[in-house]
Write a structure and sequence with these properties.
Elements (H helix, E strand, L loop, with lengths): L4 H20 L6 H26 L7 H32 L9 H24 L3 E4 L3 E4 L3 H21 L6 H23 L6 H15 L7 E2 L4 E3 H14 L3 E8 L2 H8 L1 H20 L5 E6 L3 E6 L6 H19 L8 E8 L6 H10 L10 E3 H5 L2 H7 L1 H10 L3 E10 L4 E13 L3 E3 L1 H11 L2 H19 L8 E5 L2 H4 L4 H12 L6 E6 H5 L3 H12 L3 E7 L6 H6 L4 E4 L1 H5 L4 H16 L3 E4 L5 H9 L4 E3 L7 E2 H15 L1
Parallel strand pairs: 4-6, 8-9, 11-13, 13-14, 14-15, 15-16, 16-17, 17-18
Antiparallel strand pairs: 1-2, 3-4, 5-7, 5-8, 6-7, 10-11, 10-18, 10-19, 11-12
Helix pairs in contact: 1-2, 1-7, 2-3, 2-7, 3-4, 3-5, 4-5, 5-6, 6-7, 9-10, 10-11, 17-19
Bound molecules: ligand C2E and calcium ion (CA) (2 copies).
The site of one calcium ion has 5 residues, from strand 15.
């Protein structure tokens, strides 16, 4: 082996190590990484073919077989080596986020013309010997055509360098040097090789710069979420930015686990993460068979973002196939009650949304707007809806509503089966915006909770209801108490008992006239403050209801331990009474609750049949459109006066 060949030989293991590292480090399959891998493969090919040619020619004359091998290797070398220079040129566009500039096919075609000249020159070599010749006596010798090839490579190299420099705004300085290094080192190597013909340093120079690029430019450790074995949400954000900059067309399949919260508190953090990791692994395995480029990102506590680099891919069809398979597979892993439930959404970028912040917000909020019973939605359907317009303008709406005290309280009557009349009502907040009209509390209450502006709203509700009770002397209407919804933040507020005591004094409203509704998710995170609030408020005579029973993981033991007077059966349970199973669930729940001395309210009762059945199986109270929708104060009072007098 000629001594200088060692450089070439050394480059091969370096390329191999990078290649293994690329896969072991689970790099994303985004455009720039795909080009980088192509570049690696081409570099390995050029190094290997170069080694073959050089080692065969080291002892002349060459055998017939040697001639054939060297000829093949020679062609592979020329094609691979030049293709790698062109690939790097395109890599520069991808990594700088300016791919969109060469997105039109004709742009790429123009940029590939010089390369096609190289191909033609190399392809015609067997007839012209323009590039190189190989004979058994003289071995390998270069032709004049090689000048054309050098010139064209210089064109790509110079073009790429100048382009990189012009993009200095898009790339951090610490990444610029490794990127330019490939050009600088290759140029230096070529010059060196020109003066010292046998100093084969070109491949090792390339290998070094590829190492620099992977160490400083493509850094997977910045992007993976080791807890669940996927890419991190931060990686999703940076990939998204790149996609928007490069104006690529992609699908993002967003899959949200709708019961992540309950499941996490049920399984505990560790087991929940293991479970999510298992699901992500399964999704990964299934998607691999789809022949698309995809990457899975995860945001705690339960959203997967799958970027699919193929605008024509049918996400809906794939999801229905994969979700079915996933269900079957996870059956083995967990028992039925512990299964994740999910809703998926297909978002096209930039077709549906093209603003970064809006895309991020959409992923977090779309779930609230999925129609009940749907497991798959197209983002375009949601975006076209009125609710979406409201949600994307929620900051303006909330600021305006709080500043101008735009809220009103409505009251929905609650009927007592035993007494045959209305004995209470639930206070429900309403917001009418000048620009957006009626804004449902189902939308703005969770939004206000997230933004940390729920407390002033909750304070308004408390005060308004106290004023209402005192102004209308509800006892004279036959009403015993009013139910008030408490948000999580209110329950955890240290000043809550003080605040209620203050209002009680100010309006002369005794605690028995107030019933406070909390939800299961509220007492799931029961903190010491909340525990204290519940106990001290019950101590002075306030009663509590558990709202939305039947929507989460209900823990009977906890229900029996908390100071709860009333359990409110969620509308979904009432609706399910259409089926035999649903019937028995409601019947048994009522029986169980009666056994531990809880009173029951059925919510969302709309039909006579449901009403009669609920009465028959021992439900104490009924609330729902069957009797009345929530009404404004005056209408509510009129309604109660009419009905309670007629029925009394
Ligand atoms: P929720 O506490 O479960 O309130 C019951 C919801 O069911 C109300 O929706 C009510 O209008 C609706 N509803 C009652 N009967 C029927 C029926 O027969 N059919 C149908 N389809 N719906 C019925 P609303 O008023 O839109 O409130 C939605 C949610 O917003 C409430 O759910 C509650 O979680 C929250 N919310 C409302 N007002 C307040 C409030 O003052 N404070 C807090 N923290 N949350 C509130
Ligand atoms: Ca409620
Ligand atoms: Ca409810």
């Amino acid at each position: 082996m000629p001594p200088m060949l060692y450089f070439d030989v050394c480059s091969v293991p370096i390329f191999m190590i990078i290649l293994v590292a690329v896969f072991a480090r689970r790099m994303t399959k985004g455009l720039s990484n795909r080009l980088y891998i192509t570049l690696l493969v081409l570099s390995v090919l050029s190094a290997l073919s170069d080694i073959i040619v050089e080692s065969v020619t080291s002892s002349l004359p060459v055998s017939d077989a040697g001639v054939v091998v060297s000829l093949i290797a020679g062609y592979v070398y020329f094609i691979a080596r030049n293709a790698s220079i062109v690939t790097y040129f395109f890599f520069v566009f991808a990594i700088t986020g300016t791919w969109y500039r060469i997105r039109p096919k004709r742009m790429k075609a123009i940029l590939l013309i010089p390369f096609s000249v190289i191909i033609l020159t190399v392809a015609s070599n067997p007839f012209t010997g323009l590039v190189f010749t190989f004979t058994s006596e003289d071995g390998y010798s270069r032709g004049y055509g090689i000048i054309i090839i050098y010139a064209i490579c210089t064109f790509y190299a110079l073009g790429g360098t100048i382009y990189l420099m012009s993009c200095y705004r898009f790339i951090p300085k610490n990444k610029m040097f490794p990127l330019v290094s490939l050009y600088v080192l290759s140029m230096a190597a070529v010059v060196l090789q020109y003066f010292y013909r046998f100093l084969l340093v070109e491949m090792i120079a390339t290998a070094f710069s590829m190492v620099l690029v992977i160490l400083f430019v493509l850094r997977p450790e910045e992007i993976s979420d080791v807890s669940v074995g996927s890419l991190s949400f931060e990686a999703y954000k940076s990939e998204l930015k790149k996609i928007l900059l490069t104006k690529q067309n992609v699908h993002v399949a967003i899959i949200s686990f709708t019961n992540a919260y309950e499941l996490r508190s049920y399984l505990g953090e560790m087991r929940f993460q293991t479970y999510v990791a298992h699901v992500i692994r399964q999704v990964d395995i299934m998607f691999r068979r789809e022949h698309v480029f995809f990457d899975i990102y995860y945001e705690h506590p339960g959203t997967m973002y799958i970027i699919i680099d193929d605008p024509k891919y049918d996400v809906e069809d794939a999801y229905s196939r994969l979700a079915g398979e996933l269900m079957r597979r996870s059956e083995k892993a967990v028992s039925a009650g512990e299964r994740l439930t999910a809703v998926a959404c297909d978002l096209m970028i930039p077709g549906d949304l093209s603003d970064f912040d809006e895309i991020i917000r959409f992923g977090r909020d779309y779930i609230q707007q999925v129609p009940a019973g749907r497991v798959f939605v197209k983002a375009s359907d949601i975006i076209a809806s009125k609710d979406y317009r409201i949600i994307s303008n929620m900051d303006i709406i909330l600021n305006r509503a709080i500043a101008e005290r735009r809220f009103k309280m409505y009251y929905q009557p609650i009927y007592s089966v035993e007494r045959g009349r209305f004995i209470s009502a639930e206070a429900l907040i309403r917001l009418f915006d000048d620009e957006f009209g009626f804004v449902s509390p189902g939308l703005f209450i969770p939004a206000a909770e997230k933004r940390g502006v729920i407390l002033p709203i909750g304070d308004f509700v408390l005060e308004e209801v106290h004023r209402f009770i005192s102004d209308n002397d509800i006892a004279s209407l036959g009403l015993e108490y009013i139910e008030i919804n408490l948000s999580i933040a209110q329950c955890m507020q240290e000043e809550l008992p003080e605040r209620l005591a203050f209002l009680s004094d100010k309006y002369g409203v005794t605690p028995e006239k107030i019933n406070l509704e909390i939800t299961e998710s509220t007492y799931e995170d029961i903190g010491s403050v909340m525990q204290f609030n519940l106990e001290s408020l019950s101590g002075v005579g306030y009663t509590f209801s558990l709202d939305d029973y039947g929507t989460g993981y209900s823990n009977m033991q906890r229900v029996s331990k908390l100071p709860l007077k009333i359990i409110k059966l969620d509308k979904s349970l009432v609706d399910d009474m259409a089926s035999d199973d649903g019937m028995s669930i409601v019947r048994n729940t009522i029986k169980m609750m009666r056994d531990i001395n809880k009173e029951l309210v059925a919510e969302g009762v709309e039909t006579k049949e449901n009403l009669e059945y609920l009465e028959q199986i021992g439900c104490h109270f009924i609330q729902g459109y069957y009797f009345s929708k929530p009404l404004p104060e005056k209408e509510f009072v009129t309604f109660i006066k009419q009905h309670n007098r007629i029925d009394a």
